[in-house]
Amino acid sequence: KAGVTQTPRYLIKTRGQQVTLSCSPISGHRSVSWYQQTPGQGLQFLFEYFSETQRNKGNFPGRFSGRQFSNSRSEMNVSTLELGDSALYLCASSQTSGSSYEQYFGPGTRLTVT
Amino acid sequence: AQSVTQLGSHVSVSEGALVLLRCNYSSSVPPYLFWYVQYPNQGLQLLLKYTSAATLVKGINGFEAEFKKSETSFHLTKPSAHMSDAAEYFCAVSVSGGYNKLIFGAGTRLAVHP
Q: What is the mean pLDDT of residues A46-54?
C-alpha cells in the first residue's frame, strides 16, 4: 500500500498570507490527524478528522482550520500567517479513531513564513 | 492529564553498543504508548506500540521496549547499535477517550560512532 502523502513538501509564504496543505491517507484509513513540529515546542497536536468531522482540536488559534473530504483526504488551512507558524506540518492517518490505533505519518510539509 | 518525559535530549553510543533511550509517562488510566523514529527531513516512522497485551514489545529494526507500570516507564532498547540507527526518537502516549491524539516527548537524538 502507498503511504501517507503530503503536498506540497515545501512552501515559502509571506506574513499575512494564507496557506493550504493537503494530506492523502493510506487507502482504507478513515482518520487523519495533523501535528505541528517546531524546534522550540516540539510535536504538537493540531486536530483530528474522522468521517469528515473534527473530533478533537489542540490548543491552537482559530487561524488554524481543517477539513476532511468523503474520500478521507484532508486539508489544513492557516490564515493570516505569522513568523511563528514556520514549522514542519505532519499529517498522520489511522484505520479509525481510537486511542490504541497506530498512526502512520507522512513526510510532512515544511512551511517557511518570511 | 497525560504526559511523556524523555530523559536525555542527546545520547551517543559506539557502533555495536547497547542503545537505551528512556521514556517515562504520566497517565491516570492504562496508557497506550508508542515509539517513533524520525530521520532527517522525513516524517515519523512507527517503531513499536504498547497496548497492554504484553509488557515486552518487539518492534522493527531490532528495537524493543519494556512497559514497567511500577516505574511508569517505557524505555527503548536495542542490543547492538548500527550506524543507520542515528536519528531522533520520540516516545508518545495516546490520549484516552477514543481519539487519535498523541502527546509526544521532547525527543532524543541518537548519535552512533564507529
A: 94
